[in-house]
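I am still learning, so would you mind making up any protein sequence you like and the tokens describing how it folds?
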Amino acid sequence: MLSAGRVSYEVGANTDATCFGGIAAVHRLVTKLGLVEQVDDRLELLKRHLPYHESDHVLNMAYNVMCGGTRLEDIERLRHDTAYMNALGADLIPDPTTAGDFCRRFSPEDVISLMEAINVVRPRLWAGRGRDLLEGVAYLDVDGTIAATHGEHKAGMDISYKGIWGYAPLIVSLANTKEVLYL
């Protein structure tokens, strides 16, 4: 069934590729839904917006996770990926130390504000193709889980009965789509 034929490769000088090809589509959806504006309107952590806004930091960390990052230091790899930067239309994204400083500014109220910003745009998503996923009924799932972490001395964490160091957040999710509504 498989045969080896002649293969030829052509490499152009202006070729730019990334293994995170879907990030441009995700960023376009995020922008179209108005999440950028909602985050900037509801979250006030920075005194000056030079050069970044709150949404830049939030999306930078979310996209880092979507691209396989497991910690803030993984952002550095994305900062040097020109195809990734071009897909986002970005000249610059926050570095890991700036992202860490941004995270330390959060209070419990700010976390709620961020979740509310996300919840405001959710109906716009569901009004389109997401409507078919709900089938007229929304099922909520409330459950706890173990969120493992790589440290043993962070505030508020403990060891589980399985020997995993981490936190035990309560997650409220939409069972139909498995999207987290509140954490």
Observations:
- The mean pLDDT is 87.
- Residues 38 and 80 are 28 Å apart (CA to CA).
- DSSP finds eight helices and six strands in the chain.
